[in-house]
Structure formats: structure tokens, C-alpha cells
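User: Second chain of the day. Same drill as before.
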Amino acid sequence: MRFQCVRSVDDLAALVAGIGFLPFFRSRIGGWSLEENVDPSVWFTDQDGPWEWKGRLAREKRIVYGKFYHGKAAFVSLTCFPDLCNFRRDGYDFEGFCEDALAPHNDRLLMAWLTEHGPAPSKTVRRSCGFTKGYDTVLTRLQMQTFVIDRDFVYDTDRNGRPYGWGNALLDTPERFLGAETVNSGDIYSPAESRERIVRWLHGWMPDAPEDLIRAELKGR
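Assistant: Same format as last time:
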């Protein structure tokens, strides 16, 4: 199964807008990833490709990007993201997570710093919060819970001012970047209803994939 051949940044934006939730890499559902739908000629190239497009689309608020799929990268449409937040957070905001002792100490530490000082590159967040180990686990958990997103990528530059490398994620809270009203707009549904809204939408795109499998692939924390 393939949806469309992605050859440009606009192709990718259109695919994410349509399907709602798209893992970057192969999943347990055949065809449900950018990797399986991108033109091989733009996958690894000297020209801009998916690795650069993700930052541009996130920066332009055409998609939401982060580790939303089993701790791995995924693209989410702005239409789908409020339901994903409502489902993954189980109806909580982060303050509620803390009040009910659902947020470990290091999660609270990172969120407190990012809320006060962000947006900031991931390496700055790590250093400023004093992490010596466990940082990637904490950040991935917070992204899976939709409390932190990658709003862009920051690149090192050579002596001629040209960017190089994979880039460092510019972290932010979705409430600050997208607006709390947008993020919380899924709250008119129960978390279970938000989950099923995403499942039904994805099943419409992937009718051969069992709904139970789609549901399992969307699991968060």
C-alpha cells in the first residue's frame, strides 16, 4: 500500500494534512510511513529533502513534528493534533499530571525550564537542566505525551556560513507555539472519543489495516 509519491515539501505537507498522522519510518502497517511513500531520489541527496523539510513544515506550522510514534518521529496534521493531545494526555494538562503524581521529577524539571526559557535547542535544554543521563528518555516520554514538540531544527554552520549536520531540535511546548486554544480544542471529546476519531480517520485511508492494529499503533504512554 502506498498513498502518493512524495517528491517535494508541498507533497509531504499535503499527505500529512490528508492522513492526519504519519510515522517518518516504517511501521507495523505496511505503507504507513514517509519512508515508504517518498521518491527515492530525494531520500538522501545534496539537495533539500525530507530531513530538511520536517523543520520547515514545523516552523511554518503546516504540520506538528516530534517523537509521537512509539518514541520515534512522526508528522501530525494541525487538525489531528488536538485529538492526539486529548487522547495521549488522558484529558490532563501538565499541571494535572503533577498534581496526581503522574509526572516524574525529571519530567517536571524539564517542563519547568522549557516553559520559562523556551523555545531552546535540545542540547541547551539538556545542559541547562543538568542532565548527565536519562535525558533522551525524559524528552521522548514528554513528546509521546504531546507536552513537548520540535518547532524547528537548528544547524551548525561552517566557516562560510553554510549549515551542516543533522540539526538540533528546537524544543517548545505546543501551547506556546500553536496556542493553548488550538491545543485544547480536542477537549470537547473524551480521551477515548479522540482516540477513536483518529482511528476511524486512519482506517479510512488504510481500509485493509485492522482497527485494533491501528489502535495499538497509536498507543502512547
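The first strand starts at residue 21 and ends at 23.

User: Great, on to the next one.
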